[in-house]
Amino acid sequence: MAADRTDALIVRQLEFLGGMASVDGWRPDSLLPEVAFAGRSNVGKSSLLNALLRRRAAARVSRTPGRTREINFFRVNDAFILVDLPGYGYARVAKERQAEWRPLIEGYLKSSPRLRGLVLLLDARREPSDDDRAMLAFLADAGLPVLVAITKMDKFGSAAGEERVNAIAAALELDREQVVPVSARTGLGRDELASALADLLAQGT
Ligand SMILES: Nc1nc2c(ncn2[C@@H]2O[C@H](COP(=O)(O)OP(=O)(O)OP(=O)(O)O)[C@@H](O)[C@H]2O)c(=O)[nH]1
Ligand SMILES: [Mg+2]
What we know:
The protein is of the alpha/beta class. It is 33% helix and 20% strand.
């Protein structure tokens, strides 16, 4: 198929390496470059990972927000590692669990020399939260490249969707080019994100 020839991310081999549950806890002993997926709980991180990998359930998808509690590592083609971070800022989980994400995620971000960048996911239906802004500021501070994916675009028609994307980009003072509208449901943006990811992984090699 023609589409295959332009696919920047063809998964020939996929292995779930394990989960990191605490800053001092287990993490993969690997020299491969990593890209991590971050965003508030329920934004669609696990779903987007599955869409990228073209696997139905590589990363677990939750009906119950806040399901992904550990940092999950997936090795792809023995070439790089995709990292599914726990969601932050879900209001209905207990207060102490709400604050849990910060040390774990920040600890991971600070102690990952092979981390090439992040995909930050934002829900098309919501305004960016304080946590989203804090995450962007943290990444800018750390000098980590960030791709912003606007998720669940299937909830909008094309004109309304484009309006949402522009509004979110403006609210966060991002260039429109930094932002990729996606839908795990329809596959929108999958190939664009795959090739942006490939570019990110190719940097510094
Ligand atoms: N309509 C629509 N729903 C989506 C899309 N992506 C994810 N969802 C739904 O959103 C919910 C959360 O999806 P997940 O992929 O588990 O989100 P997550 O960010 O990994 O969630 P946590 O791991 O809990 O932080 C699920 O009910 C998904 O089916 C999408 O592109 N479109
Ligand atoms: Mg998840």
